[in-house]
Write a structure and sequence with these properties.
Elements: H1 4-21, E1 28-33, H2 44-57, E2 61-66, H3 74-77, E3 82-85, H4 94-105, E4 109-113, E5 125-127, E6 130-132, H5 142-148, E7 150-151, E8 163-169, E9 184-188, E10 195-196, E11 201-207, E12 218-227, E13 230-235, H6 241-244, H7 247-262, E14 282-289, E15 307-312, H8 315-318, H9 323-326, E16 329-334, H10 341-352, E17 356-360, H11 371-378, E18 380-381, E19 394-405, E20 421-429, E21 432-433, E22 438-443, E23 451-455, E24 463-466, H12 472-476, H13 478-491
Parallel strand pairs: 1-2, 1-3, 3-4, 4-13, 14-15, 14-16, 16-17, 17-24
Antiparallel strand pairs: 5-6, 7-10, 8-9, 8-11, 11-12, 12-13, 18-21, 19-20, 19-22, 22-23, 23-24
The structure holds zinc ion (ZN) (2 copies).
One zinc ion (ZN) binds at residues 41-42, 114, 189, 239.
Length: 496
């Protein structure tokens, strides 16, 4: 169970933006071949996840990653339209290499870049700090040269110093270039002195500046090759994630890959490397102020495609006219004992319109001069001083607290995938609790009240209080993060 859920979630998160974009066209079934690169120069562990995400975000590609290409057979490749190569390492062996050749020859697509242009595939070995041919010379993988349409003599392997330079179209009429006016900027090593084989058709190029240790000529930056009935494209760009974090470079890669797979190009001339948010992402307002907190708190909301959030640092900034139209959930991590009339009115309307509330840790002190809030919405109150016959609550920092789902609550959506918690956090004791709360998690810690996660009594809003949230270690705890995420989605009525 603990294995399956996060994976399923990850899959859903990956697919959500893709499905949103281009449901009409059948996706290009893509296999990224990776798992080895010539470290420390090139690091596939960094570049492959970025390339995968960007390809998936276009909605045009359905991507799988193979980190051990040696052993792939024709049967493995049967269902794919495209292989996308981010690899420089040992040969793949006769069966796999023959399967790749036949894959392209039979009419499928191949895209490769940068590090794929030299190495063992070309019969080279790395000796005395450089690539060279062994004695006696081996021919390497003869078809690989032909598929990529290139040969790079070891003595010519090199590039300008890394710099920012414009890439222009050598063939503006090629489908990869059409609708992509003017070219784009690259931030890369400018590879030079690559020999193109007959049949390699140059689509993009860049001037190699002698002042940057270049050749003083235009060097090809993208070329395409027909191999049998198939298509291949190679670009010397793509040194690292920063080189790839260029909207034009990513767009050219994706368009070249689309062209290799289909012979057509539909993708835009710019691809944003920033992770996309899904169209129906939950809109969250995070409210702080009045109490310190670790900066790790922010990471609780980051990096989820289905959560977009804004931050307010005061009640005036947070609780404004019409907030019920702007937010699906409000996360409170502030601490203000009083709340002015105007802000009360806006927050009340928000709650009465069904907006979700997630209150974290010291936010249990919030608005304690406003009985409606703690009696009817949150269902709990921390007394900073004795009041109304209730003595003061108290706290103790740096306590190891164990919490379990309350009886019958283990299957509540807010606790999905959470399990028992062991947290180094802050104990709170002697609080007031409404008899109408639904306790989701509880602790037997002698310095803490029994309920630690509960649903408030509000009849209109879903309000969840999570007592934990004092320490950075709590914020980083995977199960706590899951708990907060679940609470947000459930409060926003996106998790049932
Ligand atoms: Zn490089
Ligand atoms: Zn605290």
């Amino acid at each position: 169970m603990s294995q399956r859920l996060p994976r399923l979630l990850l899959l859903l998160l990956c697919l959500a933006p893709a499905f949103a974009a281009r449901a009409a066209q059948a996706p290009i079934k893509t296999l990224i071949l990776t798992g080895s690169s010539d470290l420390p120069y090139h690091d596939w562990r960094q570049t492959t996840p970025l390339l995968r995400r960007v390809l998936e975000q276009t909605g045009r590609f359905e991507v799988r990653v193979e980190e051990e290409p040696a052993g792939i057979t024709a049967a493995t490749l049967e269902d794919y339209d495209l292989v996308f190569v981010n690899y420089n390492g040992p040969r793949w062996g006769p069966e796999t290499e023959a399967a790749i050749e036949e894959f392209v020859r039979s009419g499928k697509g191949l895209f490769a870049f940068h590090l794929a242009a030299y190495g063992t595939f070309f019969g080279m070995e790395f000796r005395e700090g450089k690539w060279q041919y062994p004695e006696p010379r081996s021919s390497g993988w003869a078809a690989w040269r032909k598929i990529l349409g290139l040969d790079w003599k070891p003595e010519n392997i090199g590039h300008s110093v890394r710099h920012v330079f414009p890439v222009e179209w050598a063939d503006p009429d090629h489908p990869i270039a059409q609708g992509f006016p003017g070219g784009f900027l690259a931030n890369d090593e400018l590879y030079h002195r690559i020999d193109l084989l007959p049949g390699a058709h140059v689509v993009a190029q860049a001037y190699s500046d002698p002042a940057r240790r270049g050749t003083g000529k235009k060097e090809p930056m993208l070329w395409v090759v027909r191999y049998g009935a198939g298509r291949a494209a190679y670009s010397p760009l793509g040194h690292d994630v920063s080189a790839l974090w260029q909207p034009g470079v990513l767009a050219m890669f994706a368009r070249a890959a689309e062209w290799a797979a289909t012979g057509r190009v539909t993708l835009p001339a710019r691809l944003d490397p920033v992770p996309a948010k899904s169209a129906n992402a939950v809109r969250v307002l995070v409210v702080t102020g009045g109490h310190a907190y670790p900066v790790e708190f922010y990471t609780l909301f980051d990096s989820y495609p289905d959560i977009v959030w804004k931050h307010a640092v005061s009640p005036e900034q947070a609780f404004r006219e019409g907030m019920e139209k702007r937010w699906d959930a409000v996360v409170l991590h502030d601490m203000h004992e009083t709340l002015a009339e105007a802000q009360r009115a806006h927050l009340k309307r928000y709650v009465e319109s069904g907006g979700g509330v997630v209150s974290i840790h010291h936010a249990i002190v919030d608005y304690t001069d406003w009985p409606w809030w703690y009696e009817q919405v949150i269902g709990g109150k921390y007394f900073t001083k004795p009041a109304g016959g209730h003595e003061a609550s108290h706290y103790k920092e740096g306590v190891e607290i164990v919490a379990y789902p309350a009886k019958g609550m283990a299957r509540h959506p807010v606790l999905r995938g959470v399990g028992p918690l062991v947290l180094h956090d802050e104990a709170y004791q002697n609080m007031w609790h409404s008899p109408d709360i639904q306790v989701l998690m509880e602790t037997g810690h002698p310095l803490n009240d029994r309920p630690v996660v509960y649903v408030g009594p509000s009849k209109t809003a879903r309000a969840v209080y999570i007592q934990f949230g004092h320490s950075a270690s709590t914020m980083r705890h995977p199960a706590y993060r899951r708990l907060v995420r679940n609470a947000i989605l459930w409060a926003a009525r996106k998790l049932e």
